């Protein structure tokens, strides 16, 4: 049989070389090649010669073309899901963990990934016997934490090991239904000469675990530390290999943590799970709507509350802005929790269609609570907060806003307006400024007055 060979693959364009070189000949990227193992094809023969040969062969000439089946005749099994025992975790996974799914959980060091997965694996142990593999802590540290958190320990095996071959041996012997590998950066395989922690080791080790998961139907959680560039384990390769990618985020100094699905083959993305870190581990926050308000009761200049919708839940979130005359010739635009370019665009619209210039001012915008708002519904509240700071006047008490701001100064409706308005009314807001298409007919929701606006200038007047 042909032995596995080593290849050097460009992480940018996927070009494949036999020898390492500093620059990729295809895309010109520097230092993008890393070492991979190429398994020999299972069936050498008609198709032999790999990708290149099969690309060259014409369809008519192929005798071993895979059978084509009508999609409706393909047998499929309903995905069976198991609850993780943590409602917010289930929500982000799309309603529980799917058998045989491989889920990558990424986040900054110290954010609580190990804690979350330890809580989940011990709670799931009744239905899914688990194997917790740690390459970062000793077994006594893991056991100590589990005991301190009062977690049930039956049905969970623990292993302090980083070699994939030995992890898989243990898995084959104990046959767990769930494996947690904490963290994927510590894993290495004997098949590669590269140092543990290198991109190729991480990728190949993860690939071995993914293969094992698919062959045996074992569910696998891979823990990954986010690197400075923001990608898990450097290259985005891991994200393509797994079924779901979840990010665990939070602001340093805040006890709230947000788990977000970035990719999910078995559920919706952008669903949020909200947790609070306590001395008893991570606790769920099942009704998180109001935790992203800054908590100050009297209205402050530069603050506006918006209703964002992350996943299937409306959330009240405070946006803060600080506008200050700038000593710089190129004043700063800093956005935390939203996209910087979007802020620059909104300020241009404010100038052009609202007649308000902040060209000589530094503008800082912060979304309270470490949450990242990705939807355009934040446009209007951001501009209202900027205006409020510029004028040093608070918005009227108990006001919320949401709406997309277009380049020609129009305010556009956003999805699920009624849900958002109801949520704001439930939390005692008295006034809402929204796009006309989002406003209810009577101009009220319960006790709350809803002001419908079509143009940015109208919104600024209303505020
Ligand atoms: P950990 O799960 O080890 O983070 P990660 O695996 O993402 O690196 O969590 C570490 C932090 O959480 C640590 O700074 C202490 C804090 N923590 C608590 O506040 N309460 C607890 O019950 C636990 C277990 C951890
Ligand atoms: Mg950890």
From TrEMBL:
Residues 78-226 form the RecA family profile domain. Signal peptide: none annotated. ATP binds at residues 107-114. InterPro entries: AAA+_ATPase (IPR003593), DNA_repair_RadA (IPR004504), KaiC-like_dom (IPR014774), P-loop_NTPase (IPR027417), RecA_ATP-bd (IPR020588), Ribosomal_Su5_D2-typ_SF (IPR020568), Ribsml_uS5_D2-typ_fold_subgr (IPR014721), Rubredoxin_2 (IPR041166). GO terms for cellular component: cytosol. One of its GO terms (biological process) is recombinational repair. Keywords: ATP-binding, DNA damage, DNA repair, DNA-binding, Hydrolase, Metal-binding, Nucleotide-binding, Stress response, Zinc, Zinc-finger. Residues 362-463 are annotated as: Lon-protease-like. A motif (RadA KNRFG motif) lies at residues 263-267. It comes from the Bacteria. GO terms for molecular function: ATP binding; ATP-dependent DNA damage sensor activity; damaged DNA binding; hydrolase activity; zinc ion binding. SUPFAM superfamilies: P-loop containing nucleoside triphosphate hydrolases, Ribosomal protein S5 domain 2-like. PANTHER family: DNA REPAIR PROTEIN RADA, DNA REPAIR PROTEIN RADA-LIKE PROTEIN. Belongs to the RecA family. RadA subfamily. HAMAP family: RadA_bact. The middle region has homology to RecA with ATPase motifs including the RadA KNRFG motif, while the C-terminus is homologous to Lon protease. Plays a role in repairing double-strand DNA breaks, probably involving stabilizing or processing branched DNA or blocked replication forks. This is DNA repair protein RadA. It comes from Lysobacter antibioticus. The lineage of its organism: Bacteria, Pseudomonadati, Pseudomonadota, Gammaproteobacteria, Lysobacterales.
